[in-house]
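Lab notebook, bench 4. The sequencing result for the construct came back, and we need a structural model before the next group meeting so we can plan mutations. Quick request posted to the team channel:

Model the 3D structure of this chain.
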Amino acid sequence: MAEEKKNWLESTKDYIGELRNEMRKVSWPNRKQVEGTTVVVIFSVFAFAAYFEVVDTVLQKGIQGILTYFGK
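Done. Here's the predicted structure in token form:
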């Protein structure tokens, strides 16, 4: 049992050490890059929302028209 605990502690310590080394290699974006990509994401979300609203409306009216036509 003590052997398993020691192995777990050593493997956890190794994992954290490797994680720190990998995180040092990451190139983090600067504030201007983050702001720019945030604007792009927000614009994209609204553009897709508008697109899906139009598609939803067209499909709804089309299906409603078909049901009305065949429902008579």
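The radius of gyration is 27 Å.
Will bring this to the meeting.
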